[in-house]
Amino acid sequence: MAKIVKVRCNGSGKHVNEVDVEKALKTHVVLRGKPASEHPPIPQRLVLDCQDCREGKVILTREQIEANL
Ligand SMILES: [Zn+2]
Hints:
This protein has 69 residues and is α+β, with helices and mostly antiparallel strands. The protein has one domain. It is built from 2 helices and 4 strands; from the N terminus they run ββαββα. A two-stranded antiparallel sheet has the order 1-2. Strands 3-4 form a two-stranded antiparallel sheet. A hairpin with a 7-residue loop joins strand 3 (45-49) and strand 4 (57-61). The structure holds zinc ion.
């Protein structure tokens, strides 16, 4: 079952984004020249675009990622 973490974007709207951590990792962590593994390396942080605005970014720290895998 996917774990969803709620993170506010850093735009003026402070939109709450529901992020599927596992899916976000697989989508955003690119392994050069290697097939995607089941457990990709966890980056220090993951920066996603806000789902509700163009200015905001949604930032997940490594701690948040690890806690939700
Ligand atoms: Zn936003």
